[in-house]
Amino acid sequence: MKKKIVQIDDLKREFIMGDETVRALQGISFDVEEGEFLTIMGSSGSGKTTLLNILGCLDKPSGGTYFLDGINVRLLNRNELSVIRNKKIGFIFQAYNLLPRTNALENVQLPLYYNAAVSARARKERAEKALQAVKLESRMYHYPNQLSGGQQQRVAIARALVNDPIVILADEATGNLDTRTSYEIMALLQELNHQGKTIIFVTHEQDIAAFSRRTIMLRDGQILKDVMNQQVRSAKDMLTAMPVTNEY
Amino acid sequence: MNTLNLLRIAFKALERNKVRAFLTMLGIIIGVGAVIAMIAIGQGSKKSIQDQLSNMGSNMITIRPNSNITAGARLDFSNVQTLTQQDVDALKKKARNLRYISPASSARGQAIFGNSNWPTTIQGVGGEYLAIRNWPLKEGVSFSASDLTTAAKVCMLGQTVVDNLFSNEQDPLGQVIRFNKIPFRVIGVLTQKGENAFGQDQDDIILTPYTTVQERITGSQYFQNIFASALDENSTNQASKEIAYVLRASHKLKSQDEDDFTVRTQAELIQTFSATSQLLTVLLAAIAAISLLVGGIGIMNIMYVSVTERTKEIGLRMSIGAMGRDILLQFLVESILISVTGGIIGIGLGMFSSWLVNALLKWPTLVAPSSVWLSFLVCVATGVFFGYYPAQKASRLDPIEALRYE
Ligand SMILES: Nc1ncnc2c1ncn2[C@@H]1O[C@H](COP(=O)(O)OP(=O)(O)OP(=O)(O)O)[C@@H](O)[C@H]1O
Ligand SMILES: [Mg+2]
Predict the structure, then answer these.
(1) In this structure, is residue A247 part of a structural domain?
(2) How many structural domains are present in chain A?
(3) CA-A43 nearest atom, ligand 1
(4) Which of A21, A12, A30 is nearest to A224 (CA)?
(5) Tens digits of residue pLDDT in B179-198
């Protein structure tokens, strides 16, 4: 039996806005096993980001339980959550969130600065390896403004990989990219998944969800369906099949 | 997180905003530069006054006649005449804390030698005067005891008088000059002493036995001053009390009477002048400190702007594992780096400008190591103090909201 990375049970998150209470998550339960590629889908406002923030230990649930790698996250304080994020989680954001005027290599090293156990030398080596994994070894000393959107997102993926997390969380990571570049990113993530990385990917695009083995559909803070995709598409194959046309 | 990483992160953040960091620093640079330069000017003038005063002879005690208040009006010093030979004798006999005593009475007049003439002061003094003033002869000898008793017409010349009466080749020793038409034989030349603390030329003087001045020039029994020197520096206060006691007895003053003389020790003079220049130093330092404060507020301002502007960066750092403390320290170290770098540049600038003031304006300056250390510490404190609130604000941000910030 595979190790359970994420175990959530009856997870709730309420936002109190004056007199009103917004129930963003209303009792969500599911497990994620090691090596899974899970997409979370749903319309706008359905609670995807709220769920991912809790999974990423940026936010705490108002109710229910969340075990990450066997640790009860609800019991942790702010600093302990920071340590968990630093060691066990890799984030990929829609807007890349790279530090400006800071080269790719430095950006990728960033999480390791907050881990006192990693020496300066190990930090650089690991960042170089992470950049190789996203095939950007030739752009190590480029600044974000010298990179395309897709390349910037690959730097961000390298940054998410560098601390060797047990799960990678992505929120609309292809939301700012065109179809072709999105597929490139998905191909990269699929490759990482084949190497054993657990990935949870929030999207509202059906064709992106089709690259994952499992999809959870949210509606109004509840799970609408939790399905295994019978036919997982290969982003790499689709890229090669795509005509390299010049549309303009 | 270890300190080295902290410094690296802060340094890189500043590097990304070099121009702004420098402009922020400018307030500190100017503030610290001003502090260092102002204190250097204040300390320099204090030290030069002290040097000049102690150059006059550090054990020296000056006794001057002092008017009793007459019908509510104080008389002009030169008209007051209370010090006599009797006083000198009493002091010589009774004051045990005094090593040397010399009365003095002087007169203005015209000195003439050959075709040269020069308006100067003749000062009649006792044989111990040169020892009191710590003033050696360049050549020749001082007058003898018999010169004193006979009111001999012999003199010693200050360097300024020599320069104005004699040409370079002439040796003044043995020559006869005239002062107010009275011939004086030159028996000695004094070493050059330069200006005193009040800017007077101490070398513009002719020294002669006081009996000579009293009998042949002023015709007065009274002395303008009595100079004395204490046994050593520590006994000057004791000595000045003793003098007052002896003189009051000698002048037959009743216990309710005010002193009709003033006793001034060199140490008191030094203190008076030191206090003045101390006040100057404090004033200058206060002005400079205000500019440092303004510089500190500048840092705080920029750090607040920086925290707001980098909200997204803070959110990102938190999401990848930075604790609140890491963020706090990052911004604190940034502001300390700004203030300390500014401080170091400011110290350099302050030293350079005090050197410049000294070289161009010829003002004495003294960069005290304590002022350097103090302003350095003040810079660190400024960085911590003015950086703390912005840094704390940054550390308390909610990572989700910070990430969402546009
Ligand atoms: N900080 C907050 N305060 C109040 N309400 C919030 C907050 N964050 C989210 N919500 C509410 O929770 C609900 C779920 O929001 P969430 O951001 O998770 O949606 P989403 O599925 O990510 O939508 P989208 O696809 O547009 O990103 C929404 O109704 C939103 O208004
Ligand atoms: Mg969302």
Answers:
(1) no
(2) 1
(3) 25
(4) A30
(5) 998 999 999 999 998 877 66
